[in-house]
Design brief:
Structural class of chain A: alpha/beta
Helix content of chain C: 25-40%
Largest sheet of chain A: 8 strands, mixed
CATH class of the domain at 6-93 and 173-247 in chain C: Alpha Beta
Structural class of chain C: alpha/beta
Number of helices of chain C: 10
Strand order of the largest sheet of chain C: 6-7-8-3-9-10-12-11
Strand order of the largest sheet of chain A: 6-7-8-3-9-10-12-11
Radius of gyration of chain C: 21 Å
Distance between the termini of chain C: 28 Å
Distance between the termini of chain A: 44 Å
Number of strands of chain C: 12
Shape of chain C: globular
CATH superfamily of the domain at 6-93 and 173-247 in chain C: P-loop containing nucleotide triphosphate hydrolases
CATH architecture of the domain at 6-93 and 173-247 in chain C: 3-Layer(aba) Sandwich
Largest sheet of chain C: 8 strands, mixed
Radius of gyration of chain A: 22 Å
Number of helices of chain A: 13
Oligomer: heterotrimer
Largest interface: A-C, 48 and 44 residues
Chains: A alpha/beta (about 350), B mainly alpha (about 300), C alpha/beta (about 325)
Strand content of chain C: 15-25%
Order of helices and strands of chain A: EEEHEEHEHHHHHEHEHEEHHHEEH
Shape of chain A: globular
Chain lengths: ~350, ~300, ~325
């Protein structure tokens, strides 16, 4: 590992549970990944796969009925998860620390810029707010910085634009502004949750190239959450595939696209219609996304998997490493360890009973 | 238990465990009822109302005293074993009078609400759904009706039809439906642009069917909540009219006239005032709690 | 060639825009002089970005909104100015599948009631036969028989879209407008729905118009593709032609913007990145609507909208090919 790339964020065995009327929803079931400096990581998954919940946990912005029940989140050595925080005072102290990290060290870009921008404040006010608070800039300094930022994200006539309100901008412009706000405090990590889903393709192309340029120029690390494999293929270095609150496969972009191992990843790659495809039925993944109210005994993907075996229904597969960074959790690749894994899981079940 | 030698046998489609948990398939009404029941205050309100209604219906029938049976020799007595709540200034049994009054008041409340709903829902629904010029004209008519104070209509009606239960009801209804009509119109205008309404249109549903089967059913929530709040309003209006002396005339009684009768002797026999007013309060509280509970049950998201 | 199922000639739809008290009344040409035809069992994909009028086009053809000019000819009959009552029998044959399976199903109806309703509207079959047909339709679209008494909120997005499709098929239509049928669905579910629509088309020879902004999904299902920009049809032709050798500069940019799900393709390298944004349709540019963002723009482009003309077996509206 070269000195340029050191550990930035490490998430280990993260578990999140939401209390609902129907019972607890196990939204995350032991999520482990890491991101090093100057890397762009893509988290790919369908609705309910837990990709957004993961990021909300990192930012400590889980909805009120959600709690982290296990695991850890370390950002440059500091613990961000609320696991094991008992007393109110501890929680308050932790929240105070998070306030300093959020926005300043980890910034976030949301899917719908309009929900993030305050409609009654000018763009200028919203842009300068962050660095005036975190860096204590004067009004004039902040304004100069804001103009510079807007210029960098490709908004023409920034001085005039600062005085305008969010509704005066189009969707693509707003997303540029959000990216500008996110970069304003020079964060070390930028998290983008479906940054281009609400945009048209030609605008998406603009935003993606802007995003890539800024991240590379400033040496920021970024996590992009998306359901669109096309988007990750273009700008990410590493990919993590999530399904049913778990990571089923991880690897570099080339490894995932050229040598996908997990049946879900393969199914996902098959089901995006290739542009040059003939009109033959698309290969697809049958069934519907998993119900997270269920505690699956075996693999979450088993009911939809075309390679399912008897063991998949009863026991959880373990992670198999293929090369540095490329790994996959599927019984197809950990057959040789079956007996040992089954014994361990049986023992665990005995204990909980 | 799985034997090691069958670990890697392929799993047939029928053997796959579907992780579909059937949510008990509940109809809308059932779902609302279950949510309603979790609200203790609303449930208490419902029970209270049921008790009051039952007692008001049965009470006068089983009472040994007629509601208008006067006996001046026993006027203004306190509670006794013969007259549980005492007697009024004419020697009539107070308990029988209060129960009879409650019956009249509740009848007025529920019947006028039903009439208001019927007119308001039809008027508002048609106005909102057809839209355009018709909507414009219909809504201006509503504005005119609404801009004239209700009291003027009521006094006019009393002059023409005399002071009785029916004219009080007409008086309450004559502009009571206006709010419902506005509410329903607003809902329908918003709903008719929704995709399911457009879908019903493309699937060949007639205008009436779209309005009544597709749109109205989705406005039920606000309409029911509105209705539960209209009942106490009507009861209160009747009490008010009777209290200022233009409502129901003796010997008939409503909760309002009872309070009116007690007014003159308030300083000497305050209890004669307390009984009817307590019943009015209980009814209004009960209905308000029910309304609140229904509102929460019908809009579970808004309640959180 | 036999009579096409649907022919549209110079179709127009204009929406008035509320201006200020003293401002001149403004209009938006949501659908501007559009002509095309669709044969039996064919699919025309309509692509374009938000606000280009593609959804309005679909709704105008079905007369959900009344057209302001031009003609809609369905199986040789001019249906442009038919009244609601006269339209009723045609409506049965011209159906629509909606974008949002959450909003287009009435939350108070069970699946069975929903699928039976269109047949009731047209007095098709008796009650018993209708129930049998509901079950057959549910099987066609891949719903389980015990779903019949359930309410839409109990289903996932893909299953709801199936309910919507079953309901539409109840009337045995010959032509269906699919308005963004995939965009609310997960990737793995989109493929299921695409396959389902194709299967139904092959079995029943239904013609589709598929309106979508997702170019990958449309590519697979469409025989022909029409590209819309600010209310105009700028290019229309066979899907292979449009995707492999787009002719109009806007189509070229659009096609090159599709993210390639292939890290070896190096798509970013030779991508055409358009400058600026779509102009507001209220102040649409004079002449070619794309002239404000087009790198080939000349004086001629700003003067008048070029007409569609045949170029390399497709039709293009661009001065480059005149």
């Amino acid at each position: 590992m070269d000195s340029l790339h050191k550990e930035l964020l490490t998430v280990e065995g993260l578990e999140v549970e939401f209390k609902t009327k129907q019972g607890p929803v196990h939204a995350l079931r032991g999520v482990t990944f890491d991101i090093k400096t100057r890397e762009i990581l893509g988290i790919v998954g369908e609705s309910g796969s837990g990709k957004s919940v993961t990021m909300m946990s990192v930012m400590n912005l889980l909805a009120e009925n959600g709690t982290m029940t296990g695991g850890s989140i370390r950002f440059e050595g500091r613990e961000l998860s609320t696991v094991g925080l008992g007393t109110k005072a501890e929680k308050r102290a932790h929240e105070k620390e998070m306030m300093n990290i959020r926005g300043k060290e980890i910034a976030m870009v949301f899917q719908d810029p309009m929900t993030y921008l305050n409609p009654v404040l000018t763009i200028g006010t919203q842009l300068t707010e962050g660095f005036r608070r975190h860096f204590g800039y004067s009004r004039a300094e902040a304004k100069a910085k804001a103009i510079e930022l807007l210029g960098q994200v490709g908004i023409s006539n920034p001085e005039k634009r600062l005085k305008q309100y969010p509704y005066e901008f189009s969707g693509g412009m707003r997303q540029r502004i959000i990216i500008a706000t996110a970069l304003a405090c020079e964060p070390k990590l930028l998290i983008a949750d479906e940054p281009t889903t609400a945009l048209d393709v030609t605008i998406q192309a603009q935003i993606l190239s802007l995003f890539e340029r800024l991240v590379k120029e400033r040496g920021v690390s970024a996590i992009i959450i998306t359901h669109d494999l096309g988007v990750v293929a273009e700008i990410c270095d590493k990919i993590v595939i999530m399904y049913g609150g778990q990571i089923v496969e991880r690897g570099t972009v080339k490894e995932i696209f050229n040598e996908a191992k997990h049946p879900y990843t393969r199914g996902l790659l098959d089901s995006i219609g290739k542009v040059e495809a003939e009109r033959t039925p698309l290969r697809y993944i049958p069934g519907t996304p998993p119900n997270l109210l269920v505690r699956h005994a075996g693999c979450t993907f088993c009911p939809r998997c075309d390679k399912a075996m008897k063991i998949c229904r009863e026991y959880k597969p373990a992670e198999t490493v293929f090369s540095d960074g490329h790994s996959c959790s599927c019984w197809l690749y950990c057959r040789d360890r079956a007996e040992e894994l089954v014994r361990a899981q049986d023992e665990e079940r005995q204990e909980t009973i | 238990m799985l034997e090691p030698n069958e670990y890697f046998e392929p799993l047939g489609a029928s053997e796959k465990r579907d992780d579909y948990i059937p949510i008990a398939s509940k109809s809308f009404a059932r779902d609302v009822w279950e949510r309603f029941c979790t609200n203790k205050r609303a449930l208490a309100g419902l029970i209270l109302l049921a008790v009051i209604v039952a007692v008001a219906m049965i009470g006068p029938l089983v009472s040994p005293y007629p509601y208008d049976g006067m006996d001046v020799s026993i006027a203004n007595q306190g509670p006794s074993s013969a007259h549980w709540l005492g007697t009024d200034q004419m020697g009539r049994d107070e308990l029988t009078r209060v129960l009879y009054g409650a019956r009249i008041s509740l009848t007025i409340g529920f019947v006028s609400t039903a009439i208001n709903l019927l007119i308001g829902v039809l008027y508002g629904g048609i106005s909102g759904y057809i839209g355009g010029k018709l909507d414009m004209v219909m809504m201006r008519i509503v504005d005119v009706i609404f801009s004239i104070p209700a009291m003027i209509y009521i006094i006019l009606i009393m002059l023409i039809f005399g002071s009785n239960v029916y004219s009080v009801m007409i008086g309450i209804c004559i502009n009571g439906w206006v709010n419902t009509a506005r509410l329903v119109r607003g809902q329908i205008v918003a709903l008719k642009e929704r995709e399911f309404a457009v879908a019903a249109f493309t699937l060949g549903a007639s205008r009436m069917k779209i309005l009544f089967k597709h749109l109205m059913i989705n406005t039920l929530g606000p309409i029911i909540v509105n209705a539960t709040l209209m009942v106490p309003q009507a009861i209160f209006n009747e009490a008010f009219l009777s209290f200022i002396g233009i409502g129901i005339s003796a010997p008939q009684a409503s909760l309002g006239t009872l309070a009116q009768d007690a007014k003159m002797l308030l300083s000497r026999y305050p209890m004669q005032m307390v009984y009817p007013v307590t019943v009015i309060c209980l009814v209004i509280f009960a209905l308000n709690f029910i309304g609140e509970g229904l509102e929460e049950a019908l809009n579970p998201k808004g309640a959180r | 060639m036999s009579e096409p199922v649907l022919r549209v000639e110079h179709l127009q739809k204009i929406f008035p825009v509320k201006g200020g008290l003293f401002e001149k009344k403004k209009v938006v040409h949501a659908v501007n002089d559009i002509s095309f035809s669709i044969g039996a069992g064919e699919t025309l994909g309509i692509v374009g970005e938000s606000g280009c009028g593609k959804s309005t086009l679909g709704r105008t053809i079905l007369k959900i909104v009344e057209p302001d000019g031009g003609k809609i000819i369905f199986k040789g009959e001019d249906i442009t100015s038919l009244s609601r009552a006269k339209m009723h029998p045609y409506r049965k044959q011209m159906q629509m599948i909606f974008q949002d399976p959450y909003a287009s199903l009435n939350p108070r109806f069970t699946v069975g009631e929903m699928i039976a309703e269109p047949m009731e509207n047209y007095g098709m079959y008796d009650k018993h036969e209708r129930m049998e047909r509901v079950q057959a339709l549910m099987e066609t679209v891949g719903l389980k028989p015990d779903h019949i008494r359930r309410y839409p909120h109990e289903f996932s997005g893909g299953q709801r879209q199936r309910i919507g499709i079953a309901r539409t098929l109840a009337l045995d239509p010959e032509f269906i407008v699919c308005d963004e049928p995939f965009s609310a669905l997960d990737v793995s579910i989109q493929a299921q729905i695409i396959n389902l629509l194709e299967k139904i088309q092959d079995e029943k020879k239904i013609s589709y118009i598929v309106v979508a902004h997702d170019l990958n999904a449309v590519r697979h299902i469409s025989h022909n593709i029409g590209v819309m920009y600010l209310g105009h049809l700028v290019e229309i032709g066979p899907a292979d032609k449009i995707y492999s050798t787009p002719a109009h500069p806007y189509t070229q940019a659009l096609i090159s913007s599709i993210p390639k799900a292939d890290p070896n393709a190096q798509g970013m390298m030779n991508r055409i990145i358009l400058q600026g944004e779509i102009p507001s349709p209220i102040n649409a540019p004079r002449g070619c609507p794309f002239s404000t963002r087009c790198k080939h723009c000349t004086e001629k482009c700003r003067e008048a909208m070029p007409a569609l003309r045949e170029v390399d077996s497709r039709q293009v509206a661009c001065t480059l090919y005149e």
